[in-house]
Structure formats: C-alpha cells, structure tokens
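Request: Show me your protein:
***
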Amino acid sequence: MKVIELTAFGGTENFKQVEREIPTVPKGHVRIKLSAAAFNPVDTKRRKGKFDPSCPVVLGSDASGVIDTVGEGVTYFKKGDEVYTFVMGDETAKSSGSYAEYISIDEHLVAHKPKNIDLADAAALPVVALTVYDLIVGRAKIQEGDSVFVAGASGGTGSLAVQLLQHVGASPIIVTAGSDESEEYIHSHFGIPKKNIIRHSNKSVADISSEVHQISGPKGVKFAIDLVGGNMKELCFHVIALWGHILTIVEEDDPKYCTPLYPSQSGPNSLFMKDATFSTIFVGAGCFSQDSSVLQKYRKDLTEISKLFEQGKLKAPRITKGPFSLETIEKAHKQLETGSTKGKLIMTIP
C-alpha cells in the first residue's frame, strides 16, 4: 500500500511517499480501506518531534473508509461497513496513522459514520467531535441556561462546539472572531448574534474582557472554553465568574501563558481568587491506557455523535479537499501553522 511517512522531524520536506505492507488484522481489530483523512494542528507538532520518539512515522489521527477485514472476536462490524475512526498508532497491528491507504485499528476506536454525510465529511469529524463532546457533555456537563465564552469559534473544533452548545441550550454563547470572514461565517451558519461575536484582532486582553462582560454582565461567564491558546487562554481567566470552569484543548510552550493558579501570579484573575476549576482536554489520553474498558468510550461517544448528525442537531464543518499527495500534505501543514484555518482540511484517498 502507499503511505506518506515522515522520514525525519522538522519541515514538510521530510515527508516521502513509500510502499509498505498492508497491515495485519489482529484479534479485536478491523482493517479499513481509507477514503479520506483529515489534518489537525497536532500533526504539525508531531512533525516537529513533539510526541513521537523516532522516525519514520505516519501521521494522521482522523479518517473514514470502508471495512475490508474484521479480526477474530469482532461482531459489531462487518466487511463493507462505512466507518469513521480516531486513529492512534497500533503496534499490535503494525499500523500507523491515516496518511495511508489502509489502517488496522482496535475496533473500539471505530464507529459507523453518520448516514446523512459522505465519507469525506466524516473524515473531518473524529478528533474535533470527540474533543467537543468530551468537553461539553462529559467534562463540563454544560446545561440549558449556562453562560459560555468560546475563544476560537470558526475552526473545525469551534464550529462543532458552538453547535453542541446550542443543542444543550447554553445561553448566552459569546465567541471571538479574527476577521470579517470568520464573523460572517459564525453569524450566518450558526445564528450567533453579531453583538455576541467579539473581534479580537489588535485588541488587548483587558479590552476584549470588557466587551465580554458587557454581554455576560459584571459577574462573567460560568464556562470559558479555550480552543486557541496564548492570549485567548489568558482572556478566559479574565472573563470567568466566581466558581466558574475553564476548559482548554491547547497546551502552552510559552511560560507567559502558564495557568495562573495563585494571586501572586495573576492577582484577582487567578483560579484561587475565583475558586474556579481548570480542565485540560486531550482526546488521545485514553488510548495510552491499553484498557479495553477505557477504549470502549471512544466508540460509545462516536456513536452518540453520529446520532446527533443524523438527527440534524449537528452539521459537519466546512472542508477543503485535496488529493492523496505530498503537495496536499505540505499545503495543509503550512495552512494549519498560520493559525487561521477555517473548518477542516481533507485529503481524499483513492
């Protein structure tokens, strides 16, 4: 099979298309002939050596396709099922990421795709949808009437977060936008009132915080969701209310944006002074446990997510497609590194 592997950590010039053996299908696994793979910001971090111990490695955590073989003990799936999957490298199956024609993966990381969307759209969903579902439904348990601030609402994760927040009845939902295009997208696609969309470019954290409080009231919001990092994470500490909950999916390399726990670090905006809760969301954490009872949560959540799409409660983020090629991967990584990607970037696989 064809794969595009990373031969050394660093720039996009280190990607190379090679031939590998089609992966085996151990007990409890399924093999999928991939139809599409999606790109995520974590791909660029892995390319630079953030998480993987060595190269070569095949990147890619999102995929969709058709099951071509089921392993011993698998009864939930059959050959020909259209599925989507959250991909983690699998040494048992000698398989790797989704920049490939085939993957072999633990069946608990796979679910039937939503019936009302195609395979390309489905490939855009696993990482962002699992992240958002865990954040809003699993961890924060946001309910009707809860006030929420979202930093970064126009990307793939943000667009699903806004929709799921609307589904559970959060109100008001206050979001940021960095451009006219993002503002119009959030307003026209999700119906967020323009007065609740705050333009953050060339503004200080204090000024943006003031605008948020004009909408939420002086007490601030019950939940603040950071999907961007940097000064947007800092902003969340300014807008959160007493006893509130901040949730982030972004780790920080810059000490400037380390979590301000105590007054000595951030005065009245510290977690301590607001008696607030801070949670990190890393969708891949459960995969490291190698505990089947933990892995089962992935299929359970993906199945619930499929139902929400089929019921019309959620719509897939806008996607930009490219063919299975080195050029597509190079363009996608460079676009992701701008930090201004709208929706999701997809690579179709013949």
Observations:
- The longest helix spans residues 292-310.
- The radius of gyration is 20 Å.
- The chain has eleven helices and 15 strands.
- The longest strand covers residues 29-39.
